[in-house]
Specification:
By secondary structure, the protein is of the alpha/beta class. The protein folds into two domains: 231 residues, 3-Layer(aba) Sandwich (Rossmann fold), CATH 3.40.50; 74 residues, no CATH class. Helices cover 34% and strands 17% of the residues. The protein has twelve helices and twelve strands. The protein has an eight-stranded mixed beta sheet, with helices on both faces. α5 runs parallel beside α7 and α6 packs across α7. It is elongated and about 70 Å long. Bound molecules: iron/sulfur cluster (SF4) and magnesium ion (MG).
């Protein structure tokens, strides 16, 4: 799919009149039922846009989103709404996505009640079940979001998503705002829920360790394009694309003494005017003349392993 999506300040930190950014450029993504697909890349690479298009929060200008083989925008209104309900998004900052004036019972219970998944009589039980699943004490259903810790608030967001009985969760930096120890708890909750509820995930993160922990398959994005895709073990043991290799080298060590925060050489270009040819060429240590002029297409380089680099020719 391609997405010419109007986004101003958020994407590139400047405001232009009607900036039109090609945030996604010929991105094709298939997620199998029960699979966890990780999307990794620096900020501005289009991974959030991709998540929002899949979740139906943004419309791609070209291409389409298929749900169980059916094109979402061609479904009659009601079944499209039902299909959309099956794909829920978990955001980075639970605080800003939870209404501070609503009690947890209402936050979790409003949508399933509205959609007839439970009744007013059974609502308390229904909410309790979602809270338990998400690792929250159901006796706290009468409290407000600010009475919970950051990790617990993210659990409320998860319980709210689960309450509409989704098949797929799109997690956009869903653990990025949390302490490392809490991150691990939430990631393990996602994995447990996958087992219990047969959930499918699109897991978007700038953090390679997080993606490695949770994903079956990983797509690496750079400036709106997928540059590499492989099963998680293959990607981390045999990275092919110079950008992926740079990301892996730059990965902060778990040992704080060895931790390095140096960025990959050069700045990520503006998505408003991405470099010609291979978008990565201004930063690539292996760049050749050809890379400046010729687009590098994503193609198969091994079983289930795709990369978009001219070096593979
Ligand atoms: Fe580097 Fe060229 Fe490969 Fe792009 S196509 S990653 S510039 S070698
Ligand atoms: Mg983002």
């Amino acid at each position: 799919m391609s997405g010419v999506v109007e986004r101003g300040a958020e994407l590139m930190g400047l405001k232009a009149p009607n900036p039109v950014v090609r945030a996604l450029d010929d991105v094709s993504l298939t997620v199998a039922e029960g699979e966890v697909v990780g999307i990794v890349g620096e900020s501005g690479c289009g991974k959030s846009t991709l998540g929002r298009v899949v979740a139906g929060l943004l419309q791609a200008s070209e291409g389409s989103v298929l749900f169980r083989g059916k094109q979402l925008d061609e479904m009659p209104g009601k079944s499209a709404d039902e299909a959309r309900l099956k794909v829920q998004m978990i955001f980075q900052d639970p605080s800003s996505s939870l209404n501070p004036r609503q009690r947890v019972r209402e936050i979790i219970g409003a949508a399933p009640l509205h959609h007839g998944m439970t009744t007013a009589r059974e609502l308390d039980d229904y909410v309790s079940q979602q809270m338990q699943r998400s690792g929250l004490d159901p006796s706290m259903a009468g409290r407000f979001p600010h009475q919970f810790s950051g990790g617990q608030r993210q659990r409320i967001g998860i319980a709210r998503a689960l309450a509409v009985q989704p098949d797929m969760l799109i997690c956009d930096e869903s653990v990025a705002a949390l302490d490392v120890s809490i991150q691990a708890q939430i990631l393990n909750l996602f994995l447990d829920l996958r087992e219990q509820l047969d959930l499918t995930y699109l897991f978007i993160s700038h953090d390679l360790s997080v993606v490695e922990h949770i994903s079956d398959r990983v797509m690496v994005m750079y400036l709106g394009r997928v540059v590499e895709e492989a099963a998680v073990g293959e990607l981390f043991s045999h990275p092919n694309h110079p950008y992926t290799r740079a990301l892996l080298q730059e990965r902060p060590s778990l040992d704080p003494v060895q931790r390095r925060f140096s960025a990959i050489e050069g700045e990520i270009a503006s998505p408003l005017s991405p470099p010609s040819g291979c978008h990565f060429h201004p930063r690539c240590p292996m760049a050749m003349e050809r890379c400046r002029v010729e687009r590098s297409e994503l193609r198969l380089i091994g079983p289930g392993h795709k990369s978009a680099c001219h070096l593979n020719d």
